Amino acid sequence: MSYAVGPMSVDWEERIDLGRLRALRVEAVQRRLDEAGIDALLVWKNENVRYLTSLRAQLIAGKDSSLNGALLTRQHPPVLFCSGGELDKARAGMPWLTTIVPVPIMEQTELIRAFVTKTLPSMLHDLGVRSGRLGIDHASFALIDGIRRELPAFELVDGDAVMLAARARKFDQEIQLIEEACAIADAVTHRALTEVREGRRECEIAGDAMQTLYYLGGELSHVITPFVASGEHMAPPHRITTDKLVRNGDVCFIDIGAMWNGYFGDIGRTTVVGKPKPEQRRVYTAVYEGLMAGIACMRPGNTTGDVAAAIKAAVSKHGFEDRLLSLFLGHGIGIGANEPPYIGETLPGATDTVLEPNMVFAIEPLVWIPGVPGGAGVRIEDMVQVTATGPRVLSRVEYDETLLA
Predict the structure, then answer these.
(1) Beta bridge partners of 343
(2) pLDDT digits (tens, 9 = 90+) for 141-168
(3) What DSSP designation does 360 have?
(4) Which CATH superfamily is domain 18-167 in?
(5) Over the stretch 227-277, which tens digit does the pLDDT of each residue have?
(6) Is beta strand 366-369 parallel, antiparallel or unpaired with respect to 376-379?
(7) Is 331 helix (H, G, I), strand (E, B) or coil?
(8) What pairing do the DSSP bridges indicate for beta strands 154-158 and 69-73?
């Protein structure tokens, strides 16, 4: 299906084969392990654990890389290391996992030491891996140090690069999941836009949007701190929701998005309360034209650098080349809310990536200028799939025509 057909399971239409998708994801990572010469992979980042096991876990603020893990080798299905709070649920409801092992929150040194000396070597032994290269994605110093001390037969290597490489090009089933996430994110964004009016607080607008997110079965917003910023809060952008009152003449930006079945839709829109000022229209038009130019460039064979250059060239025609937010202009997205490749990153180490079919990006140029009552900061953000025939925009929320010059 090339559109969001609905998030429910039905018998009258072929929808998403999640069992097949689980197998494809594991096979993709195992191929990457083989190519990289990595014998075993230990992951803790929530999106990587979800990718390998489909565990939808309770997330505790600041702990999402300390609660659950997974271990994968080239020949065996993944082992789930899960918090005791998830153990019974996982054993009862996740029959595709053959091995589920409880682990503590991976912070206390003594608990980590016991994991390294007992749990991990026992599992590696059972999987037939007694030495070699062990990839790891994200871990505390105590875990890294413990593995080096207690498992000297293993060389620790970068496991997150393997996961990111496997996740970069989406399977067709993943595109379907992203479509559904975008449908929910569209609805969330639309609800927020309809609630933007004089006399409301940013936090009320965010609350209304989050109500829609949960009504429609969304798991999380794209940003854990929903981004509703109005007026002068968009110049410079505050990137959080506050108790500020929306006033006549304010621009208001919405960036909340949605996660569904582990995949994200990231959509942003700017609107205005009342009659827009000329400066607000100038900025909005520049951002809109930059977004359109960037999307048009998203074809196989072009690079992320080409896309960034197209956005900047369109924005520069309006004299705002120096007013783009000092952040990338777009990012990969899927089971990770933000993931490589990045578009328009300028910090040291930035690279260009050749676009390939079934890569998915959120394109999000933001321009702001100071000193305008009601603010003159604008971001517009769309979800775009790269296909063999060109870009395919997955988000559908209307743009604000009153702000287009």
Answers:
(1) 330
(2) 999 999 999 999 999 999 999 999 999 9
(3) E
(4) Creatinase/prolidase N-terminal domain (3.40.350.10)
(5) 999 999 999 999 999 999 999 999 999 999 999 999 999 999 999 999 999
(6) antiparallel
(7) strand
(8) unpaired
